[in-house]
Amino acid sequence: MKRLDTRDADFETAFAGLLSGREEQGQEVNKPVADILASIRKDGDSALCALTQRFDHLPVTPQTLAFGPEEIAQARAQVAPDLLDALDVAARRIEAFHKAQIPSDMRYTDDVGMTLGMRWIPLDAVGLYVPGGKAAYPSSVLMNAIPAKVAGVGRLAMCVPTPSGVINPLVLAAAERAGVSEIYRVGGAQAVGAMAYGTATIRPVDRIVGPGNAYVAEAKRQVFGHVGIDSIAGPSDVVVIADSKSDPRVIALDLLAQAEHDELAQATLITPDAGFADAVIAAVEAELHVLSRASIAGASWRSTGAVLIVRDLNEAVSLANHLAPEHLELMVDDPEALFAQVRHAGAAFLGRFCPEAVGDYVGGPNHVLPTSRTARFASGLSVYDFLKRTTFLSGGPEALRQIGPAAVALAHAEGLEAHALSISARLDALDAQAATPANG
Ligand SMILES: NC(=O)c1ccc[n+]([C@@H]2O[C@H](COP(=O)([O-])OP(=O)(O)OC[C@H]3O[C@@H](n4cnc5c(N)ncnc54)[C@H](O)[C@@H]3O)[C@@H](O)[C@H]2O)c1
Ligand SMILES: N[C@H](CO)Cc1c[nH]c[nH+]1
Ligand SMILES: [Zn+2]
Asked: What GO cellular component term, any one, is given (predicted)?
C-alpha cells in the first residue's frame, strides 16, 4: 500500500507511477492468451476440452461442455428459497433500470423532403462471460444477461469456469431466471475464443460481454474486430473519497470489498484528513485478520492499495478523475456537489449509506464496468451493448434534384466516376421525363 500526500515533493512522480501501474495490467498475458486463442481456432472443441482440463482441472468432452436442463433444474432445487427471493429482488431491480434505458428510434423529414432516421436492432447472438475462478458470481449472470434479454437478443450463450467441476447452484439458477439459452462449463481465454470463433459445440456469437480476470480481459481485446466486445472489465477497482466524518472501519470495508475480488484489484482512499487516513489504514489491517478472503484482499491491498492525502475535496475529485476508477464512492456531506465535478468513473455511489456493494447486487445499474482507467472512454454494460443502429434515408425525385448535384461534384472531386454517374444518371432521367410532354 502506498500512502502519499499531495504536499510531498515527490508526489507527482509517485502518482504517475500509480496511474501507469493501473494501465499496465495484462501486458504479460498477451502471449499466453494469443497462444490459447490460436489453438481454439485451430482445434476447436478438442483444444477447449484440453485447456479446461489444464486450467480448471476439469475432465470434459464435447458432449459434457454444456449444462443440461436436468442439471439446471437440480441446481435451482438446491438453492434456499430466501436466496431465490434475493435473486428475484436483484433481477427485478436490474430489469427495471435496463428497461428504462431502451432508446427510441429516430425519424424526421428534412427541408428537402427526405425522411431520415435510425432504427435500433438487437444483436442475434451474444456470448456472456461469467467469472468463476476465485469466486462464483451469480450477480454477474444477472448483470450480463438481463440487459441482453431486455434489448431483445435472440440467443444468449454463457460461459462460466467450474474449477474442478464445482459450480455454485445459484449461478445456474440465476442464468435460468435471466433467460440464458445455453450454458457452458468453460472459462478463461479459451471460453472467449470458443464464443468468438465457434467450435463444433459452441456456435460463434456476434458480441462477447462480461467481466473476468486478466486472461479474459486480454482475450476479449484480442478477439475484438472478429466479434464485438463491451468495455474491458478486468480486475475490480475502487476509489473512495471520504471525509473524517465517515467511520474508518466502514471505509476500510468498502476498500476491502473490492480488494477481496482479486490480488490485482485496486483500492484507493482519498481524504483531506491525514489522521482519518491512518485510522482507515489501521482498520484495514484489523479487518485483514478476520476476513475470510484475507489472503486475496491482503495481497491486493499491499501491492496496489493506495491512500492519498489531499488539501481539500476539490483536489480529491481532480485526482479521482485522473484515476478514472471503475467505482467511485463519495462519502461526504454533499456528494451531489462533488459528483458535479466527476468526469471519469464507471459508476458513482453518492452518500454515506450508498456503498458500492449495494450496486454490486441490488441497486439496478450494471456492475460490469470499465476497469484499469478505461472509464476515460468507456461505460458500463447496458442495453446499448446489445443493440446496434441502422440508419435510413428515404427520398423521392424532388430531394434528389436538390441535393444530388452536390454529391456529384464531391464524387468527381474524389475521382469516383461510378458514384457520380449513379446519381447523375437518375438526374438525367428526371430531366428527360420533365422535358417529355405528359401523355393524356
Ligand atoms: N468489473 C466487473 O464487473 C467484475 C465483476 C465480477 C468480477 N470481476 C473481476 O473478475 C475477475 C474474476 O477473476 P477469476 O480469476 O475469479 O475468474 P475468471 O473466470 O475471470 O478466470 C478464471 C479463468 O482464468 C484462466 N486462468 C487462470 N490462470 C491462468 C493461467 N495461468 N493461464 C491461462 N489462463 C488462466 C482459467 O481458464 C480460468 O478458467 C476478478 O478480477 C474480479 O475482480 C469484475
Ligand atoms: N464489484 C464487482 C465489479 O467490479 C462486481 C461484483 C460481483 N459480485 C460482487 N461484486
Ligand atoms: Zn464487488
From this structure: cytosol
For ligand 2, say whether the CB of 326 is within 6 Å of any of its atoms: yes
Q: Which of 213, 220, 232, 261 to mutate to test the pocket of ligand 1 (most atoms within 8 A of CB)?
A: 213
Buried b (16+ CB within 10 A) or exposed e, 382-392: bbbbbbeeeee
Q: DSSP letters of 181-237?
A: SEEES--HHHHHHHHHH--SSS---SEEE----HHHHHHHHHHBTTBEE-----S-E
Closest atom, ligand 1, to C-alpha of 261: 43
Domains of the chain, first to last: 2-25+235-364 (3.40.50.1980), 28-105+123-230 (3.40.50.1980), 396-435 (1.20.5.1300)
**Per-residue CA distances from 140 to 182, 233, 235 (Å):** 16, 12, 14
Answer yes or no: is 360 a known binding residue.
yes
Residue of 28, 52, 55 to test ligand 1 pocket, by largest number of atoms within 8 Å of CB = 55
CB 182 near ligand 1, within 6 Å: no
Q: What is the pTM of this model?
A: 0.94
The answer, yes or no, to whether residue 439 has pLDDT greater than 60, is no
Neighbours of ion ligand 3 (CB under 5 A): 360
Per-residue pLDDT tens digits for 67-84: 999 999 999 999 999 999
Look at residues 389, 369, 387 and name the one whose alpha carbon lies nearest to residue 378.
369
How does pLDDT run across 165-178, given as a tens digit for each residue?
Answer: 889 999 999 999 99
In the chain, the largest separation of any two C-alpha atoms, in whole Å, equals 97
- Grid cell for residue 162: 467450474
319, 321, 327, 329 alpha-carbon torsion, rounded to 10°: 60
Give the closest residue to 270 by CA, choosing from 321, 201, 225, 231: 321
129 annotated among ligand-binding-site residues? yes
List all residues 6 or more positions away from 193 whose beta carbon is below 8 Å from its beta carbon: 36, 37, 40, 41, 48, 219, 223
Between strands 327-331 and 2-5, the pairing is unpaired
Q: Are 145 and 94 in contact (CB under 8 A)?
A: no
261 membership: H or E segment, kind and range: none
The residues annotated as belonging to the active site are 326-327
Please work out whether the CB of residue 236 comes within 6 Å of at least one atom of ligand 2: yes
